[in-house]
Write a structure and sequence with these properties.
This protein has 6 helices and no strands. By secondary structure, the chain is mainly alpha-helical.
């Protein structure tokens, strides 16, 4: 089955949005659910998430998102755990979750829009190039 350019681009956008959120362990399930709900390309969403959700990108991005969330909420900086286990993160409660969640949304929305514009332009150009060769 041939996927439409729109379905692929929106799939990549979904994957990018989820990649910018600290939802390790449930990202694939969430991607599958959102892609199915909106009838967008799951494979594109999964690939985008794998590319943009790597620790090399994710960890510095989460630190930035946390700092943005701290500036907005006015919460004090806490000492982050040495290991990111759910039990250790849960001990910090709202002091970690609220700034990180808010920062993630503030960063994820514009970056996802930017990713959508980039993916859209790239796929349209790619499809035109393939069409011209055929």
């Amino acid at each position: 089955m041939k996927a439409s350019t729109s379905s692929i681009v929106w799939g990549f956008t979904i994957g990018a949005f989820i990649a910018f959120l600290p939802l390790y362990g449930i990202k694939s399930i969430l991607i599958a659910a959102i892609a199915a709900l909106f009838k967008k390309n799951f494979t594109a969403a999964f690939i985008s998430n794998c590319i943009l959700g790597t620790p090399l990108i994710g960890i510095p991005l989460y630190v930035l998102e946390y700092k943005i969330g701290l500036m907005i909420t006015g919460f004090e900086v806490i000492q982050l755990p040495k290991r990111f286990l759910l039990t250790e993160i849960a001990e910090f409660g709202w002091q970690l979750v609220v700034p990180l969640s808010l920062g993630c949304l503030i960063v994820a929305i514009p970056l996802s829009i930017l990713a959508h514009v980039i993916f859209s332009a790239w796929f349209k150009k790619r499809r035109q190039k393939i069409g011209a060769c055929a």
